[in-house]
Structures are given as C-alpha cells and as structure tokens.
Amino acid sequence: MSVRLKSSTADGRLQEVFGAPVAELYATATGAGAPPALTRALQLRSFLALAEEQVARVRDRVHEAMAPDRDMGELSAGDRRFDAQWLEAALDARDGYRAALGELLRTMPPPDQQFRPGRMAQSVVAAALTPSLAAPAPARAGAARARRL
C-alpha cells in the first residue's frame, strides 16, 4: 500500500493548515511551483505514517502473543525483548517525525505570505563617502584566517 494512502495522526493538522485533504495535497506537491513547506511537510508525513505503521505492527504482534487463549508454552522472553526494542525504536522515530512536522508547521509562513517564485525588483542604494571618511582598508582585511592544527 502506498504511503499516500496510509493515514497518520498528522492528517487533520495538515488539512487544517493547508486547507485541503491529504490526497489533494500530494497531488499539489507533485506540480511545478509547489510550496517547499508543503513538500517538506508531506515528506515528514510519509515518514510518520510508516513509523506509526511499525508501532501498530509491534503492538498487534505483542497482543497476539499475549492473548488469553494462547498456549503459555509458546511465550518467549527473547521475542518479547526484541519486540520491546523494536517498539522503542518505532516510538522514537514516530515522536521525532511528529516533532519535526510540528516545528515545520509552526515556523512556516502563512499560506498567503509564502514565497512565490517570480522576478522581484531589487532596489539599489548608493552612497558615497567623503574623502575624509574614506580610509584605506587594513592590510589583512578580507584575508582568510589561518587554520590552527
């Protein structure tokens, strides 16, 4: 299944921020001129959806192994330790992606103020120093600092 079709806990927030369902956001992101924030947000959302799927898989595997109708002789402490390690890694990844996506959504400019590609006029400011204020640059001005080893 495509990651675009998997749900994530961030889908509602993305729809709120960008004003469209996630499927439409993916379609918009593939077009020319897509806002960079949208592209980054959807990349993080994709990683988040995969991490959340891993969390669910481990949880479901543990629930199945620990089901009341299972034979107690099938329980394996080693398997549960492996599940605990995998779950910890998946939860760390999920938390990291959620934090990164939250930070991106918090710091990006509002949609009506996002940068649009195009030509912008540059203003030129010119100033002339009077000869009494103009001083020669020091001999080492602009010289790269020597690296110390």
Description:
The protein has about 150 residues and is mainly alpha-helical. Helices cover about 50% and strands about 0% of the residues. The protein has 4 helices and no strands. About 15% of the residues are buried.
Strand and helix map with partners:
Layout: H1 11-18, H2 22-29, H3 36-65, H4 77-107
Helix pairs in contact: 3-4
Number of helices: 4
User: Shape from CA axes?
Assistant: elongated
Number of DSSP E strands:
0
| Biggest sheet overview | none
Roughly what percent helix?
A: 40-55%
Mean pLDDT: 81
Share of β-strand residues? under 5%
Order of helices and strands: HHHH
Keywords:
149 residues; 4 helices; single chain
Q: Could you write a compact summary of the structure shown?
A:
This protein is 52% helix and 0% strand.
